[in-house]
Design goal:
single chain, alpha/beta, seven-stranded mixed sheet, 39 strands, about 35% helix, binds adenosine-5'-triphosphate, binds magnesium ion, nucleotide-binding, ligase, Mur_ligase_C, ATP-binding, metal ion binding
Length: about 900
């Protein structure tokens, strides 16, 4: 077997609209192509032995064991690999379920499609699945050690890619509310919402966290002073810089017991608490001083009680946790060292911040803390006795958390909410030391020790005991208060032909509303009227540039087939999805071999239209109309024919449509006809002579109308839209050369030629075509091009591209000639292989008022050539 290509999809795609995260592995089965699993001796047994949990896969039979049954009876290797790739991820702790396997047009080559949780892990699982199956085919087994290694690697990949527990909870809540999010490429920053409505978070800092507040919280002394001035109970304490100040400091805080800590520490480093003697105090001083960058040491009174974390979000207490330092509980038999080992076996304990809890480490601090309790690692603890391994309760040093949200005294709630306001933090973690959070701090001598910016959420979301709290909800409530938008309208446009033109026109109409429009097309990314990036920008990367932009109020996205196939859409929902047409083009690329498959690719855009949104569909194209059953949103049709039965039926039922009637572009709404404008007044329709441009304009009018844009505004838009050759080179560029006209169009498929033909046939004077085609098209396509040309021109000069794309010189011309003569043997076409020569000949011989049309190899060269003739004007197109 050989993996030919691996693609990672990240949005709605050809295989699934809902399953956005898919790996598509193009797999050549090679010598296994004609060997179903039942014909490979020992394969079934080897597979069951390696992965017994595959019994859980139902597969098509629909019951437990269904998949294995199919392996036993005989199924193809691609299908087995799909299931193995899924199961490996499942065993690594990331459950996934969706898979599809389809043979391509090349016999023995399959597309194996399966879901992933983390994309690197997904790709790894695909490779590992191939390795495993190949090994079972060759040797009958897959070594256990190999599997263990695969699973360990998968777990590592997932852990490394994880966002961190706090970010994860916020993102999950956003997803639950259908708020889109994207990871920005720097600083683990997450964007929630799109465009102008976006907010950001970084761990639990939000775009609403003020810099003054965060800085103040990081300054422990400053914080304490501000709080003390406001009458909040804080530890009595003082800061010293030299050892000889220690005695005065101890006296100042009221004598022992005391706490000694670095002024600028965190995570409990350098802290000694419950210090009761002078020698101990000196040792603690050295420790703290060494841990401080500025050699500044805080001496504080020691307050009895346990550590509590009160989380205040947007002015309200959201959760309270009591935190207990890393400890073990005796059983009367085991030593402390053994107890630690037992405690660490808890699967909830991991390294660092990755898991719910963190493993307890035995280090110098732990030994010290034990010693102060009169223990060492060898001590056998009596049953029920507690030995602490840390003085402070950070989860990251092995502590645990107990939820106390329902127990906190109302007065303490009031105090903590005031504290958050005094510091100015939107999300504040307030450290409270008190013997009993159920009583007012003042009554039991409790104090506020510190206020943390960017507090961890782990202890509240997954406390060791008590109720887990959804604290992401108030964060999202704060960032997006009820009724405020989080998305900008997305208008996505697809189709074989006319995407760029229609996208530009749609964006232009929206700009008349005064909103900032971001749009992407084949020629670039634009925001407002400015170019952001030049080049073919019709994929998910370009779309995300628009959706990330904080000024964009409306997104208009040309959405081409290439991007959909390569990585799926950049958005999981749009407000308007326009499908212009589906014609034969790009077939045979990316395993899309038939026009029906191509329709399914483009249908993705219609299928992601939200329930309240509109799919704007071409009623004249049966493949587009065929998408309707999959659409969840509402439908609006456009048609060149007001009598199109689909349109008639649709409006009779109260639906919306746009049609070309009596020379007008009109919107039909129920029984009413709203005339937008007469085609002759719409430059992009070339005075009403280019029918396909009328169709494009109808789509643009409808796409804006369904979004509530005023008909006056739409009229203004279609009247003033004049794309130039400079803006859209090769797209119906018409030049008035005084004596005659010249048209340059980069039509590149039969539907495109037909479209241009629609315009040419409307031309009153002589029509001369300069016709050629790319050499990599099939013979039949070139013959068809000849036929189509014969149907539209009075006179034809056949030319060839410089680049013959593998054909002998003259071969393309012969095929085109063949087509012309089959269609009309009286035309007597001339053959001039050189493109420039051919065009010059046509321009020199066309009669007055005539039209020369060229389908050039190089648009730039042809435009330059025509510009030499000094056109009177460049007409719209
Ligand atoms: P972290 O980064 O975990 O917040 P830190 O290095 O910022 O720790 P503090 O928050 O000042 O240090 O103190 C850590 C812990 O030590 C407190 O949560 C509390 O349990 C204990 N502690 C600190 N000062 C006192 C005090 N004056 N009386 C009693 N306990 C104290
Ligand atoms: P691409 O796939 O190259 O990005 P596109 O879909 O963006 O193409 P446009 O750039 O708008 O299409 O138009 C390209 C050419 O396609 C036009 O010059 C014209 O020849 C033809 N065309 C445009 N609109 C239509 C249409 N509605 N039906 C058929 N052909 C069209
Ligand atoms: Mg602290
Ligand atoms: Mg385009």
């Amino acid at each position: 077997m050989k993996i030919l290509r691996t693609q990672t999809l990240r949005g709605p795609n050809y295989w699934s609209i809902r399953r956005e995260k898919l790996i598509v592995m193009r797999l050549d089965l090679e010598n296994l192509a004609n060997r179903p699993s039942n014909e490979i001796p020992g394969f079934y047994e080897g597979l069951v032995e390696a992965l017994p949990s595959l019994v859980e896969h139902f597969c098509s039979p629909g019951y437990r064991g269904g998949f294995l049954e199919r392996v036993q009876k005989g199924t193809y290797m691609g299908h087995i690999i799909e299931h193995v790739a899924l199961e490996l991820q499942e065993l690594a702790g990331t459950p996934v379920g969706f898979g599809r396997t389809r043979e391509t047009a090349t016999p023995g080559v399959y597309n194996v499609v399966f879901e992933y949780a983390d994309e690197q892990a997904g790709r790894y699982a695909g490779r590992a699945a191939v390795r495993m199956c190949q090994s079972i085919v060759d040797t009958g087994t897959y070594p256990k050690a190999e599997l263990e290694q695969d699973l360990a690697d998968l777990r590592d990949l997932c852990a490394n890619a994880s966002l961190g527990p706090s970010t994860e909870t916020i993102v999950k809540e956003a997803e639950a509310r259908n708020i889109p999010w994207l990871l920005l490429s720097a600083r683990a920053m997450v964007q929630l919402g799109y465009g102008v409505h976006q907010k950001r978070i970084q761990a639990t800092l939000s775009s609403m966290s003020g810099i003054l507040a965060v800085e103040l919280a990081c300054d422990k002394e400053g914080t304490k002073t501000i709080l003390k001035d406001a009458g909040i109970p804080v530890p009595r304490g003082t800061v010293i810089q030299y050892l000889d100040e220690l005695d005065d400091a101890i006296e100042e805080v009221g004598g022992f017991p005391i706490v000694v800590k670095p002024l600028d520490g965190n995570h409990g480093r350098g802290i000694t608490i419950d210090v009761n003697s002078r020698p101990e105090a000196e040792e603690a001083y050295d420790l703290a001083s060494a841990a401080s960058k500025t050699r500044s040491v805080i001496v504080e009174r020691f307050y009895r009680g346990s550590d509590h974390r009160v989380l205040v979000i947007n002015g309200k207490v959201a959760a309270v946790a009591e935190r207990i330092p890393a400890h073990v509980v005796g059983d009367g038999r085991s030593t402390i060292e053994e107890l630690i080992e037992i405690t660490n076996q808890d699967p909830n304990r991991g390294e660092g911040h990755a898991n719910v809890l963190t493993k307890i480490t035995i280090d110098k601090t732990a030994l010290n803390v034990l010693m102060r309790q009169g223990y060492d690692l060898g001590t056998v603890l009596p049953e029920g006795a507690i030995a602490y391994l840390r003085a402070t309760a950070n989860l990251s040093t092995g502590g645990i958390a107990v939820d106390r949200t329902d127990e906190i005294h109302p007065e303490n709630v009031w105090i903590c909410q005031r504290v958050a306001k005094l510091i100015g933090l939107d999300i504040a973690g307030i450290d409270v030391v008190t013997p009993d959070i159920r009583k007012p701090l003042r009554e039991v001598d409790g104090v506020i020790v510190e206020v943390n910016a960017a507090p961890g959420f782990r202890m509240h979301v997954a406390p060791s005991r008590g109720l887990p709290r959804n604290i992401a909800a108030p964060v999202i409530d704060m960032l997006f208060p009820e009724g405020t938008p989080n998305r900008v309208p997305i208008i996505a446009l697809t189709g074989t032909n006319g995407k760029t033109t229609t996208s530009r026109l749609t964006a232009h109409i929206y700009r008349q509303t005064g909103k900032v429009v971001g749009f992407t097309t084949t020629d670039g990314i634009y925001i407002d009227e400015y170019l952001v990036e030049k080049g073919d920008n019709t994929g998910p990367y370009s779309a995300s540039v628009i959706l990330k932009d904080p000024t964009v109020e409306i997104a208009v996205l040309e959405t081409a087939r290439g991007g959909i196939l390569r990585s799926g859409l950049a958005f999981n929902q749009c407000d308007v999805g326009v499908v212009l047409n589906v014609a034969a083009d790009h077939l045979g690329i990316g395993d899309i071999d038939t026009i029906e498959q191509m329709a399914k690719v483009k249908s993705v855009v219609a299928e992601v239209v939200s329930q309240k949104g509109y799919a704007v569909l071409n009623a004249d194209d049966p493949l587009v109309v065929g998408m309707v059953p999959q659409v969840k949103g509402k439908i609006a049709y456009f048609s060149m024919n007001p009598d199109n039965p689909i349109i008639k039926d649709h409006v009779r039922r109260g639906g919306m449509a746009a049609v070309y009637e009596n020379g007008y572009l009109s919107i039909l709404e129920g029984e009413w006809t709203l005339r937008v404008e007469e085609a002759v007044n719409i430059p992009v329709t070339m005075g009403g002579m280019a029918p396909f441009m009328i169709a494009n304009a109808l789509a643009a009018c409808l796409a804006t109308f369904v979004q509530g844009v005023d008909i006056e505004v739409i009229r203004q838009g279609v009247r003033t839209f004049k794309p130039s050759a400079a803006q859209t080179p090769g797209r119906m560029n018409l030049f008035n050369l005084g004596h005659h006209h010249a048209l340059i169009d980069y039509a590149h498929n039969p539907a495109g030629y037909e479209a241009v033909g629609g315009f040419v046939r409307n031309w009153k004077g002589e029509k001369v075509g300069v016709v050629g085609g790319p050499g990599d098209r099939r013979d039949d396509d070139l013959i068809l091009l000849g036929k189509l040309s014969a149907g539209m021109f009075d006179r034809i000069i056949v030319k060839e591209d410089n680049d013959t794309r593998g054909r002998a010189r003259g071969e393309v011309a012969d095929l085109i000639l063949k087509g012309i003569n089959e269609e009309n043997s009286s035309l007597h076409p001339e053959v001039i292989l050189d493109e420039t020569e051919a065009l010059e000949k046509a321009l020199a011989t066309v009669s007055e008022g005539g039209l020369v049309v060229i389908f050039p190899e190089s648009v730039g060269q042809s435009i330059a050539l025509i510009k030499k003739y000094q056109p009177v004007s460049e007409e719209e197109g």
